[in-house]
Amino acid sequence: MREHGQQITAGIVTAVVGFASTFALVLAGLQEVGASDDQATSGLLVLCLAIGACSIGLSLRTRMPVTVAWSTPGAALLLGTGGVEGGFPAAVGAFLLAGALTVVAGSSKTLERWVAAIPVSLANAMLAGVLLPVCLLPVRAVVDLPAEAAGPVALWALLLVFARRWAVPAALVATVVVIVVAYSPDVGSFAAVAPTLDFTAPAFELATLLGLGVPLFLVTMASQNIPGMGVLASFGYRPPLRPALLATGAASIAGAPFGGHAVNLAAISAALAAGPEAGPDPSRRWIAAAASGACMLVLGLSAGLATILIAAAPEVLIGAVAGLALLGALAGALCRVLTDSDCASRLVGAGDLRAEELSMGRLAERYLELYARIA
Question: Which of 110, 248, 297, 363 could bond 52 through an S-S bridge, CB–CB 3.0 to 4.6 Å?
Fold first, then answer.
C-alpha cells in the first residue's frame, strides 16, 4: 500500500474534487427536469456507483488511468432545459436514449468516426450556449443574496490565484456553512440521510426524446468523451475508445431508471489521475484512476445529506456554486470557438495573451467586474 501512496492520494483528490465541484449542479439539474428530492438523491447515488465501477473496470482492463465522471455539460443542459413534457419519467426516457446512442456509437465504427468528426467549433459553441446561463448565476446570486453569496464567491476568486484546484471545493464548503447557519437544514437521523435507489419507470415522449435525449448524447460525446481521449493522449495514453463508450453507455442505461442522466470519460479531472501528480511512473498511474473510482463509491453514501442541504437553500445560491465550477469549462469552450490567435485577448483584454494561455485569474477579474456593473 505504501508504494502506491502517491497514486492513491492522487485518486482520492481526483474523486473529491470531481464530486465536490459539481454535485450541486447534478442535483439541481435533476430537480429542474422534475425529479423529487428522493429521485435526485437516487440519481446522484447511482451516478457515483456507475463512475466507480467503470473507472475501476476500465483502468484494470487497460492498465491506463481511464477516469470516468458524470456528464457535467449534461447536467448543465438539464438545468437549462427546465420542465419537460411528460415530467421526470419522460426525462428518464431521454436518459435511456442518450445511453443507448452511446452504446450504438461504441458498437459501430462508422458512427464512432462520425461522432469523432463533429466540428470542434460546433461542439464547443453548443457547449458554451449550455454553460453561459449557468455561469451567470453567481453574479445573480451576489445581487439577490449578497449576505449569503458574496463570501463563497470572494473565497473562490482568492483561491483561484493561490490554490486554483481547491477554489471550487472551498467555495462549496463555504456555501455549506452558509446554508447550515442561515437556513438550518433538518438533517435528522441517519436513516433520513442514507441514500437509497428510487426506481422511476421511463416514459417516451417524442418531444422530450428529441429535445433532451439527443442533445444530452451530443453534448456528452463532443464535450466529454472526445476531449477525455484528448487529455489522455496528451499524457501519452491511447486507450481504445470503443470499450469506453460501450462501458459508459451500458452504465448510463443501467442507471437511468434510478435517476442517473449520463456517465462518460472524464475530461477535466482526468488530468489529475493521468498527470505527474499521480506519480513519476506513467505505467502505474492507472492505480490513481482505480482509486478514484473506489473513492466515488464511498462518496455516493453522502448523496442523501447533499440533497437535504441543497433542498434547504435558495435555488440561486446552489446555482452559484455550479456556475463557479463551470467557468473554466466555459472559458475553454469560448476559446475553442474563437480559434484565431487573439481569442483570449478578446475575452480578457490582454493583447499579448494567446488563446491556449487563457488565465483563469484574468477571467475571474473580468467576471467580478461584470458583477460590479450589475450591482
Answer: 297
Q: What are phi and psi of 69, to 5 degrees?
A: -145, 170
**From CA 240, how far away is CA 34, in angstroms rounded?**
36
28 close to 322: Cβ distance less than 8 angstroms: yes
d(CA 108, CA 114): 10
- Asked if 201 and 257 touch (Cβ cutoff 8 Å), the reply is yes
How far apart CA 149 and CA 146 sit, in angstroms, is: 5
Per-residue confidence (pLDDT) for residue 81, from 0 to 100: 82
Nearest CA among 13, 2, 1 for reference residue 292: 13
User: For 130-174, what is each residue's pLDDT tens digit?
Assistant: 667 778 888 888 888 888 888 888 998 898 888 877 787 788 788
C-beta atoms surrounding 275 within 10 Å: 17
> What pLDDT sits at residue 354?
40
Where do runs of H (alpha helix) occur along the chain? 5-32, 37-62, 72-81, 87-107, 109-116, 120-135, 137-144, 146-162, 167-183, 190-193, 206-208, 214-220, 226-234, 241-255, 270-274, 286-299, 303-312, 315-337, 343-348, 360-374
- For position 101, what pLDDT does the model report? 94
Flag residues of the chain having pLDDT under 50. 189-190, 340-361, 363-364, 367-368, 370-371, 374-375
DSSP state of 172: H
* Residue 44, phi then psi, degrees to nearest 5: -65, -40
Nearest to 268 by CA among 354, 217, 329: 329
